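Contributing new complexes? Match this layout with adenosine-5'-diphosphate.
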Amino acid sequence: MARIVMKFGGTSVGDCDRIKNVARRVKAEVERGNEVAVVVSAMSGVTNQLVDYCKQISPLYDPREYDAVVSTGEQVTIGLLAIALQELGLDARSWCGWQLPVRTDGAHGKARIESIDTTGMLAAMAKGQIAVMAGFQGLGPDNRISTLGRGGSDTSAVALAAALHADRCDIYTDVDGIYTTDPRIVAKARKLDKITYEEMLELASLGAKVLQTRSVEMAMKHRVRVQVLSSFVDMPGTLVCDEDEIVEKELVSGIAYSRDEAKITLVKVADRPGVAAAIFGPLADNNVNVDMIVQNVSEDGKSTDLTFTVGKADLDRALKVLEDRKTELAYERLVPDSNVVKVSVIGMGMRSHAGVAQKMFQTLAEKGINILVISTSEIKVSVLIAEDYTELALRALHSAYGLDVQ
Ligand code: ADP
Ligand code: ASP
Ligand code: MG
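Output block (do not edit by hand):
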């Protein structure tokens, strides 16, 4: 007997028929002799709607009340799935995050799971009851409901799998696995049998929404075997695993994009020691995360242009911080641009092979796409380009690195 955590995303529990379909899948796993805990998201679209309600009432809402609101979508689906399982003759019950509890830190709206008390759940499972846990939610140190950030049910599932010492964590979604790039944009995207934790971590943090970044961090840390597969078709998915489990290593394993970035240019900012600290210090103090940074060469030795990116959601706050310090920073102009996309090429092979970045620049040049900012790390190269070129860039790069399905 294996112990398995099965997680179903928003589309998979999108209506009552789909919830019944999920119940049948869970039943099949139980009939194979396995012990099962299920984690579900809210029905697709519900969390967006709840977020929107909060914003309509107050753009600067209290994050604790935001969590009280947005966590409710999952409470509906756990109850419905438990009923659907009971209809199939199975013993099942729902678990809200606070009922275990799933303990998190106090960062409401983007909380991190700190521990899960599985005592009650394990006792119920030992009696043959299927546990259906709400994803996305937990209990903060203030004893109030917290949520884990968008896409957080993946992290709930992996954390539960780690806490239960499960043999596997299966993430059921609306695609049948992890692809070389988003299959909804590049029709020639190729499904991967396996991908390393490190590569998946880069893919996720660079924009591939198929797994929340923290779920991959958690899986890597606790060595949870994660499989991503379809909740609609019966076929093996993609396994996220250790590097030594993968025989055929690709130079480039995937391409990701993120539309969540915005670019800010400070024109003619003073070129003297301490200026970068004077800009990025206050941004950090105001919770604005800066991602890519490029500083141009100073032509006159006195001033230079500085360009960097922040999350789109943080753009207004970043601009306010910089405008408030215009005199101190002595820049000429502030130029924001949110019509940008970050495209990233990822692969473990880059550690030992040169030329990956060059191929990226060449390919984009051939398509007449201008690169605005570049950043690199050991296993990825990212470029910022105009948003209109997203599809064109992804398809061209996908072909250039030989990733197209044959
Ligand atoms: P769920 O609601 O099940 O959590 P998500 O919408 O969060 O599903 O994630 C699945 C989506 O991730 C897919 O529909 C797909 O468009 C997108 N995606 C982005 N990059 C990739 C990739 N490399 N492989 C597979 N899917 C990807
Ligand atoms: N329902 C939450 C969201 O839409 C969590 C999730 O789907 O993973 O972000
Ligand atoms: Mg998701």
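Reviewers usually confirm one structural detail per submission. For this one: The two ends are 39 Å apart (CA to CA).
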